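Okay, can you check this protein?
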Amino acid sequence: MPEKPKSHGRLKTTATLKPRALLQDKPELVGAWEARIITLFPQAFPGVLGESLTGKALQDGLWRLGLIDLRPFGEGKHRNVDDTPAGGGAGMVLRADVLGRALDVAAEGVPTDRARWPIVYLSPRGRPMQQTDAQRFAKADGITLLCGRFEGVDERVLEEYGIEEVSLGDFILTGGEIAAQALIDATVRLIPNVLGNQASTEEESFSNGLLEHPQYTRPATWKGRDIPPILRSGNHAEMERWRKQQSLDLTRARRPDLWRAYCKAHGLDPEQG
């Protein structure tokens, strides 16, 4: 039989009313960051999170992934989790009582302080996710993510549990699972020892309010295009100045919103740069 991938195939598919760990034979490191996911599709995880550096970090116990299947909390013989919108309208809405039971289970054994353990609903009407949010989540003990479906969730749940709404952008997905994986990926990579080179996170886009400068590697010439001579000069001071100017130029051209914020923070005229 072919060998099973290290980060797949160990997640039981039976329903559970408790957060279940993705890997049963991984080390349990004290204080490891944890993501608890409430979802109708636990089989969608770990997805891409089980690959590359995030997958290795998961296998090594640097972070944990707990999955809470929403379906067993449902009502009646068929475990219904949704109902028609109050006042009429298209689609279905996830029920407050069903979500409440799942959230109560997700809260077991975790801090009640939202700064230490945020609860986030992935929602297109939420505040756009920023790099500063990933940094904030990475500094917490963990996070609970609610993956919506259908027309959304009962508003009373968001109010009762103090849930933060976060959006990945002005577009609609069929559910929150893909968005949850993106949020986790952006967060986990900031956890110490996950990337192995912490300096790389300090030089990338958004780390200083600017887009990242262009990157190059071998070959020196490709299809008639050369690596900029400054990057082959060995003059590190000049290279840093060149990279900074490239970041400034790219941000001004591609992200006027970031450019205005950067200029305001540094006392610059956005029209002059």
